[in-house]
Amino acid sequence: MSATVFDKIINKQLPADIVYEDDVVLAFKDINPQAPVHVLVIPKHKCRSFADLDEVNTGAVGQYMHAVAKIAKQLTGDAGYRVVFNVGKDGQQTVDYLHAHILGGKQLSWHPA
Ligand code: 5GP
Question: Is the N end or the C end of the chain the one with fewer CB atoms within 10 Å?
């Protein structure tokens, strides 16, 4: 797997506006935000895509999802939010490193197609 921008952010070779970090995940603001809250959450143990999560042990997947939920709650309170995983070509995934988009901070519309 070749290094992506998110590998470089994890390795601190590229700067990012980090909002949360622990042993399992790193969360940082999207460089091109689509909502007042737009944060990307990536696992520290690399996985290329949501489509490859079936190859990751369920404990690690659970820890990752738990972190996404915790960070979303910290950033948006009880107002609600959206979690998006873009997958592959049709899903318009542009970075080959698993990432959850957390979007919120306003009333979101629904026009993904
Ligand atoms: P995707 O389309 O793969 O689901 O989303 C990739 C996201 O990464 C995009 O929303 C894009 O704005 C964001 N992004 C791409 N390069 C960088 C970067 O260098 N820094 C940050 N913070 N976000 C990036």
Answer: C
